[in-house]
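Students often ask why inverse folding is considered easier than folding. One informal answer: many sequences map to the same fold, so there is more than one right answer. In these notes we will look at a single instance of the problem. The structure comes first.
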């Protein structure tokens, strides 16, 4: 594919990010060329975000839209995607930053490989500290086929559920949407994407600086977050397509059960006894069965870890 033939839309939903959105947009404008355009939607922000992005309306490579009312991240991403017309789309959160030389690296790899999905590394911003994160297991700069859940198995193994460190061929995800009204939308999106046939590649270079902010999901727990979190992983388990006995299904069960125990432990440490009891009563039958099924098929070291996690249940539940 000729490099000049590739086009890309960068999609940015904006809601109450007045301290970060300008840096986000400027980091992108400093890198892109005439093959790219930026689509921004103000999701009825209540801070100064709207007036900040208003300044970019006159930029020839930026289109700014206003949502009719606050609809949430998933609905805003879906609305932006519906307006996209380029070959590829890249969802970037408005409080993050495009890493230096990320754009040219991404476009160069897409030119060479014509991948349907490009996966890349990222940098985590923790205050002033930058931590590089590897987000793929395998060799870089070559196409892989999503056969027998290979893509999802890789996502599960390295916990890379994010959409913002990936670039997608627009036609591939025409019928994949972010589930509106739910948190952990990226986990659900990746599960739905994994059911399709496509070729994907790994760019061994960070493309995003991801800002870890206070108040992110799971730091302040309530029932909706707990329900959405567990639903996302139950959905993944239930939609995993089995092709053979020796696939990644039992490893997925193993990882999901660990997340369940970790969540219960977090709720207990927060001393949220009512939430802990409700969560256990509602979900433990499913996760107990998952534990027993996974345990039968796992190698010894993973079975041992799973047993250790399971043994913590009594301690976690003490006092409820």
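Output (designed amino acids):
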């Amino acid at each position: 594919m000729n490099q000049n033939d590739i086009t890309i839309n960068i999609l940015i939903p904006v809601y109450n990010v007045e301290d970060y959105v300008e840096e986000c947009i400027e980091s992108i404008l400093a890198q892109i060329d005439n093959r790219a355009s930026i689509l921004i939607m103000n999701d009825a922000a209540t801070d100064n975000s709207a007036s900040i992005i208003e300044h970019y309306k006159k930029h020839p490579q930026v289109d700014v839209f206003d949502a009719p009312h606050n609809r949430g991240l998933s609905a805003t991403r879906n609305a932006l995607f519906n307006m996209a017309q380029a070959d590829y789309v890249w969802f970037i959160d408005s409080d993050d930053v495009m890493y230096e030389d990320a754009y040219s690296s991404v476009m160069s790899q897409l030119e060479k490989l014509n991948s349907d999905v490009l996966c890349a590394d990222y940098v985590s911003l923790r205050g002033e500290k930058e931590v590089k994160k590897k987000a793929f297991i395998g060799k870089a700069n070559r196409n892989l086929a999503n056969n027998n859940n290979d893509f999802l198995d890789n996502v599960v193994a390295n916990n890379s559920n994010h959409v913002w460190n990936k670039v997608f061929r627009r036609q591939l995800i025409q019928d994949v949407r972010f589930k509106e009204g739910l948190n952990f939308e990226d986990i659900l999106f990746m599960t739905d994407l994994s059911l399709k046939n496509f070729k994907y590649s790994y760019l061994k270079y960070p493309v995003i600086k991801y800002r870890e902010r206070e108040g992110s999901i799971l730091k302040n727990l309530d029932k909706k977050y707990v329900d959405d979190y567990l639903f996302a992983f139950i959905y993944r388990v239930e939609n995993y397509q089995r092709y053979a006995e020796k696939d990644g299904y039992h490893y997925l069960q193993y990882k999901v059960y660990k997340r369940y125990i970790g969540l219960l432990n977090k709720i207990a440490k927060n001393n949220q006894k009512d939430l802990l009891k409700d969560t256990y009563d509602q979900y433990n039958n499913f996760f107990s069965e998952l534990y027993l099924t996974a345990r039968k098929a796992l190698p010894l070291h993973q079975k041992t870890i799973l047993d250790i996690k399971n043994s913590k249940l009594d301690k976690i539940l003490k006092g409820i």
